[in-house]
Amino acid sequence: MPKLVECVPNFSEGRRRDAIDAIVAEVRRVEGVKLLNVQSDASHNRTVVTFIGEPAAVKQAAFQSCAKAAQLIDMEKHTGEHPRIGATDVIPFIPVKDVTMEECVALANELAQEIAQKLDIPVYMYEAAAKTPVRKNLPDVRKGQYEGLKAEIVKPERQPDYGPVRMHPTAGATAVGARQFLIAYNINLGTSDVSIAKKIANTIREARGGYKYVRAMGVMLEDRNVAQVSINMVDYTGTPLFRVFETVKSEAARYGVNIIGSEVVGLLPMQALLDVADFYLRFEGFDRKQVLEDNL
Amino acid sequence: MPKLVECVPNFSEGRRRDAIDAIVAEVRRVEGVKLLNVQSDASHNRTVVTFIGEPAAVKQAAFQSCAKAAQLIDMEKHTGEHPRIGATDVIPFIPVKDVTMEECVALANELAQEIAQKLDIPVYMYEAAAKTPVRKNLPDVRKGQYEGLKAEIVKPERQPDYGPVRMHPTAGATAVGARQFLIAYNINLGTSDVSIAKKIANTIREARGGYKYVRAMGVMLEDRNVAQVSINMVDYTGTPLFRVFETVKSEAARYGVNIIGSEVVGLLPMQALLDVADFYLRFEGFDRKQVLEDNL
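Structure tokens for the assembled complex are given below, as produced in the milestone run.
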């Protein structure tokens, strides 16, 4: 099986169907790239495109769709609820299979250079691809949005990592980064007391001394009368699913409560589930090549 | 992802390299078929070929390699330790992904008809494809081997399911079947007392009142001084890995012994491990399409 990288560019257009279609068509026409999802939101005026493939093909699809967005979207006229700095607002690369985070960071830098040189758009590197700690978090990079950055881009602390020290007249700026796959994971408790879910969420989330790569909150599933620990696993290679599950199980037991079920919302990489099987079956030296389908 | 079937034909030639190569070449030249393994044994004078692909392509590769074996192998001159009835001795189809056992049985019947009509070889259906219970077990079909069956084929109870009621003059007869994927799975115990492994093996194996699709024995890993429950899971969809693991854990605890590790020997279908993750994480309605790589 080939190396696999996922890419999830966000474009600042969620209303004009023809513009969205033209941008997505640039992804579709790259051989070896598989389009997984297109999600447009009119009030955000934003479209999130998800595709996957080998690194070089994914980079090409990202560049082409970014170039098309620069032609079709005018940030001077853009309005929408979601924060944004450019026509192609963010482009994250995500390792999926046989690819390291370092390779994704290198890919992000190659793309950033290409966007800067060929499209004359300033580019900011963020998350794992950030060149300084203060640009690690996307909200910091996007501070002031398009309008604010346009005024501040000449300040030393806001100059781009690649490209001109001024906004592109219509396409603005773009943030390019690399990050882990985010898994949306919910654990349902055998109780209708949401305060228990909230307490457990606090024990596992990074912000309160819990696991480094875990965001969590307690919510109530009104239709089922079930309290749920709702979790974002922002790096399943650092904090795996089974560890969070076992900790929630142990914390719930302290209140005499059981886990009645769990669910993954949307997609996840196969490795995240193989890690679960590996843990519970106490595998000695399991090799992913032993998975039949991985030999195809 | 396409439907996937595995096929593991056994050919009665394990010595002449050129004949083995010519037979395997018939598998290789079918587009959409991936050759996984070729294992020849000189004393058995037998070669086991493993390949995988979409059902129609796999059937074609099976037929072509069977036709080539009929040309190159003369059962009148064949000697070897392993029981056999023909040049292509057995052809089992194994469901791997998005394919039911019924589909594999249908595929086996199509292939059997083709072998009977085009190659004039008598064919016996076995295991899940057996047309009568007495032919379910391969040893019963192969009773008396090539020489014995040659004499008894005219008897009503030994007539083939497809093809002529006489052996092919050089290629003999062929058994075609469908079965589940066999997983070789070992569980290592935190003890050097092999009698405990033997007792546990007896509790889980079908022959002693245990799980229907489990064969097991207790063995000693001399180099590690560790007792092991060595298991063949002959249908992981009927008796899953996690159930066997949990039962061994519980039975071992009765002797104050822990499981220190487990291992899969060779390949296994991804579904077998997804079932493990599904069980331990208590998934509610997990869909295999949520696995990212399965969308490619």
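The first strand of chain B starts at residue 4 and ends at 7. Chain B touches chain A through 42 residues (CB under 8 Å). Further analysis is deferred to the final report.
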